[in-house]
Specification:
The chain has helices at residues 17-32, 52-61, 70-77, 90-106, 124-133, 155-166, 184-194, 197-202, 225-228, 232-250, 259-272, 281-284, 364-367, 410-415, 419-428, 438-456, 476-483; strands at 5-12, 36-46, 80-84, 113-117, 143-147, 174-176, 208-216, 285-288, 290-293, 316-321, 333-338, 345-352, 373-379, 383-391, 399-407, 468-470. The protein is globular, with a radius of gyration of 24 Å. The mean pLDDT is 95. It starts with a strand and ends in a 12-residue tail after the last helix. The strands form 3 sheets. The protein has an 8-stranded mixed beta sheet, with helices on both faces. A 6-stranded parallel beta sheet has the order 3-2-1-4-5-6, with helices on both faces. Strands 9-16 form a two-stranded parallel sheet. The chain folds into 2 domains: 7-148, NAD(P)-binding Rossmann-like Domain (Rossmann fold), CATH 3.40.50; 181-483, Dihydrodipicolinate Reductase, domain 2, CATH 3.30.360. The protein is built from 17 helices and 16 strands. The protein is of the alpha/beta class. Helix 6 (155-166) runs antiparallel to helix 16 (438-456) and helix 10 (232-250) crosses helix 16 (438-456). It binds nicotinamide-adenine-dinucleotide. InterPro entries: G6P_DH (IPR001282), G6P_DH_AS (IPR019796), G6P_DH_C (IPR022675), G6P_DH_NAD-bd (IPR022674), NAD(P)-bd_dom_sf (IPR036291).
């Protein structure tokens, strides 16, 4: 399935952070492993006037820390070319086309092109349009457009962007990166769900009580304040990563493990998520913004650089999603994500129902058999944990909780390809399983838009923020969301 590919990569934003931190190291790994070989070249573009040599040095420097022998790195870097290019200037695409055609001939690439837009989304439409009008899209090979988040800031803007791109590229050529879909343990969800009779049988509202998803970060906005002020947790985490993971957790079994079937099921799951009415938002979704920590050593969000002193941007969200279909009716899916929380952790908890009858007596210690929980930790640990009731060791008969644990070892983790490496290889091979389809993006915006509108129509009262301490697990209302239903967050590092 995965063979060596011939391809010319054209990276827009070749001098940027993403290119240096993720793309060049990932491409190198693919080159080192033989997925890319002599028939490959990269054109890096940005506005600065760099020479090829300067660019190759930048690429080489980006590989510091990536193991690899020097000759291999030099060979790799020799495939890189730099073209100074303002994406808004049509004339520049003519120069770019000439270079692309020359390199195509030089490396015998046969027309295969990967256009990677590693720059501000405001330019995505313009670039895609010019790639078409200036004939950078070839007739003989494959042409694929890889784009980064964010994909719009609401349904309207996302649709406009999609329409612009769709003038040049059809859906099968568009690879929307959601790097969560490249993570090992997220890719494990279908294996766990559909590869085991235990989970396959129990994965529905008869046996599952609730589902919890936490994406917690310990850092604040750092130097990305400018971007974050236009985004917030809802757009940065919920609309894309959270909705994608929820769709993988709740979709029905695809007929086959291929992109078309998986996307069909993911879309059905997303379509079944209840869209809240404006008056239902407050009871189901809460927002937060971090203040300083208790000791006063960490700044409040409003005191960070590039942040308005009365900013109403949310750095935390928690919500209850209800899925209106036969499989999930009545099962809340709780999601939360925030910055400056206790620690970095991404975790899924599948909470099963209690056994129908507790035969172990009615005394206090026997009365409450706890609920079984399947925990899938995505990062930084990679772990499966099944928490079940067992007999407490010793005399008499008491039950207690036992954890069945499997953790990927540090060695296994170190040898696992990074998300970007896996996604780039998938894109190179035309495998779209781990990329978001436009229909999924659109549905996710439909769910998010109502919540965002309700919040930002009520931004007059600036005193509601900050409402949680840096170093906590978010506002109290986040816990209340679950206690109102008789539930609680299984993952609770504050305990
Ligand atoms: P960046 O600001 O570091 O890089 C932007 C690049 O675009 C630079 O190379 C810059 O020279 C170039 N550029 C800007 N205006 C231009 C113009 N008119 N013509 C030509 N080139 C121009 O940004 P980044 O952090 O690398 O992010 C790139 C994209 O990736 C964004 O969509 C971002 O949201 C997304 N993203 C980044 C990260 C990350 O870790 N950096 C993570 C997820 C998504």
């Amino acid at each position: 399935m995965e063979t060596q590919q011939k391809a010319l990569f054209i990276i827009f934003g070749g001098t940027g952070d993403l290119a240096k931190r993720k793309l060049y190291p990932s491409l190198f790994k693919l080159f080192e492993k033989g997925f890319l070989n002599e028939n490959f070249a990269v054109i890096g573009t940005a506005r600065r006037p760099w020479t090829d040599d300067f660019y190759r040095n930048v690429v080489t420097e980006s590989l510091v820390g990536v193991s690899g022998d020097k000759t291999k790195i030099a060979d790799f870097a020799s495939h890189f070319y730099y073209q100074s290019h303002d994406v808004t200037d049509v004339a520049h695409y003519i120069t770019l086309k000439k270079l692309a055609d020359d390199l195509d001939a030089k490396y015998q690439i046969e027309g295969n092109r990967m256009f990677y837009l590693a720059m501000s989304p405001q330019f995505f439409g313009t670039i895609a349009t010019h790639l078409g009008s200036q004939n950078l899209v070839t007739k003989n090979g494959f042409n694929r457009l890889i784009i980064e988040k964010p994909f719009g800031r609401d349904f309207e803007s996302a649709k406009k962007l999609n329409d612009e791109i769709a003038n040049t590229f059809d859906e099968s050529q568009i690879f929307r990166i959601d790097h969560y879909l490249g993570k090992e343990m997220i890719q494990n969800i279908p294996a766990i769900r559909f590869g085991n009779i235990i989970t396959q049988t129990l994965w529905n509202n008869k046996y599952i009580d609730n589902i919890q998803l936490t994406l917690s970060e310990s850092l604040g906005v750092e130097e990305r304040g400018g971007y974050y002020e236009t985004s917030g947790a809802m757009r940065d985490m919920f609309q894309n990563h959270i909705m994608q993971v929820v769709s993988l957790l709740t979709m029905d079994m695809p007929k086959e493990f291929v992109a078309s079937e998986i996307r069909k099921e993911k879309l059905k799951a997303l379509e079944a998520i209840r869209i809240l009415k404006p008056e239902e938002v407050d009871a189901n979704f809460i927002r937060g913004q971090y203040g300083a920590n208790k000791a006063g050593t960490e700044k409040a969000y409003r005191d960070e650089e590039q942040i308005a002193p009365d900013s109403m941007m949310e750095t935390f969200i928690a919500g209850r999603l209800m899925i209106d279909n036969e499989r999930w009716s009545g099962v809340p899916v709780y999601v939360r994500s925030g910055k400056r929380l206790v620690e970095k952790n991404t975790e899924i908890n599948i909470v099963f129902k209690n056994v129908e009858k507790n035969i172990f007596g009615t005394s206090d210690e026997h009365e409450h058999l706890g609920k079984d929980v399947l925990t899938i930790t995505i990062e930084p640990d990679e772990r499966f944990r099944l928490t079940i009731n067992t007999k407490e060791i010793g005399q008499g008969f008491n039950t207690n909780k036992t954890n069945l644990d499997y953790v990927n070892s540090p060695e296994t983790k170190a040898n696992t390809p990074e998300a970007y490496e896996k996604l780039l290889l998938d894109a190179l091979n035309g495998i779209a399983i781990n990329f978001a389809h436009w229909n999924e993006v659109a549905k996710a915006w439909n769910v998010a838009d109502v919540i965002l509108n309700s919040w930002h129509n009520n931004d007059d009262d600036k005193t509601i923020f900050p409402n949680y301490l840096s170093g906590s697990m978010g506002p109290e209302a986040s816990a209340k969301l679950l206690t109102d239903d008789g539930n609680y967050w299984i993952y609770n590092p504050e305990k």
